[in-house]
Amino acid sequence: MHDFLKNQYQFSDYQIAQLQYLLKTFSSEFSKLLIMGFIFRNQMGVYFFAVTIMLLLRTATGGLHCKKYISCFLVSFTYMFLSLNVLPLISINKVFQLILLFFCMIGNYFIGPVTSVVHAPLSDKLVKRVKLQSFLIIFFYITLTFIIPETPFTVAGFWVIILHTLQLAVARIIKKGVPYERKICETY
């Protein structure tokens, strides 16, 4: 494949390495989602909804990153298991949910983004865009929570936002509070 891309399309070694990284990352993330989808197959709709909220926030603000596939899978599985099966057992009234979501919205805006060590430093323009993106995602969710009655979907989404905000804060602390710059140690 390397020689084909190099000879046929005149890709540089760097471009080929980028493509390999993209394929490895995509296959790793997709396989984790499929495995968890199988595990949560009896809750497929709620699982899909929770993953959608998580991915929207994660792509906007980043967070904790693991170096090994198995540790990443275990962290992701724990995150989903807590959001779908454990934390929904805690009954929180709608007003308190809205208050917590408001604090999460503000927290994500001021804490994020927290990028991996392998991620290039973000431009100021991109930082502003992803901060606004996470703010609007949670604002939209607050609106949904206010309008529609409580369902397993809204409860799972609420806990995904809470857990995302907590792991984002932990990631920022691990990075020693320095925003948007590449660090020598990766955030785990």
Short description, anyone?
The chain is mainly alpha-helical and 188 residues long. It has seven helices and no strands.
List the helices and strands and how they pair.
Layout lengths: L1 H8 L3 H27 L4 H18 L7 H18 L7 H18 L12 H24 L4 H23 L14
Helix pairs in contact: 3-6, 3-7, 4-7, 5-6, 5-7, 6-7
- Could you tell me the number of beta strands? 0
**Shape by Cα distribution:** globular
Secondary-structure-based class equals mainly alpha
Helix content: over 70%
Question: How would you describe this structure to a colleague?
Answer:
There is one protein chain. 72% of the residues lie in helices and 0% in strands. It is an all-alpha fold. The protein is globular. Residues 180-188 have low confidence and may be disordered.
Descriptive key words:
188 residues, mainly alpha, globular
